[in-house]
Amino acid sequence: MKFTATIPSVSPEEVEDRIKAYRRLGFENRSPAVIVYPATQHPCPWPDCGIIITAIDFQLSKMGDDSQREKWLGAWWQGSGLVARCPGCRRYVLYGYEDKHTVDNLARVADAVLPDDWEKTARIALRPT
Ligand SMILES: [Zn+2]
Q1: How many angstroms is it from 84 CA to the middle of ligand 1?
Q2: Could you give the angle at the alpha carbon of 85 between the alpha carbons of 81 and 86, nearest 5°?
């Protein structure tokens, strides 16, 4: 007897809709900001840094006050991500939901900026270089 597995196909639109729903519910439930990056997003986006972060549990509940946490959760779940200094090069990085970017204009992301010592509170998975 031969068995065949049928894996239901899901359209890209359906995947996008599910991610949107997940993020909406994440914000509504004030879920913790936790991310595991794909391998292509592990290195710091700044040139000549070399630090490799594979995952972050931001531990926002242990930082700032209520109004700051509300802004940070909004930036994480509904915006483009959280901005913090790289633990290696100390330059600002946008730690996004899917990727990381360099940040050189803090005015545009003011509600997303974490304290300078964020890495003392957050749990950061570093990969040795
Ligand atoms: Zn860096």
Answers
A1: 10
A2: 95
Answer whether residue 21 is part of any domain: no
pTM of the prediction? 0.89
Q: Where are the beta strands (DSSP E) in the chain?
A: 34-36, 53-57, 82-85, 92-95, 100-102, 123-126
Domain of 65? Answer: 32-126
Which residues fall inside 5 Å of ion ligand 1, going by CB? 44, 46, 49, 51, 86, 88-89
Work out how many domains the chain is built from and give that number: 1
What are the pLDDT digits (tens) for 61-90?
999 999 999 999 999 999 999 999 999 999
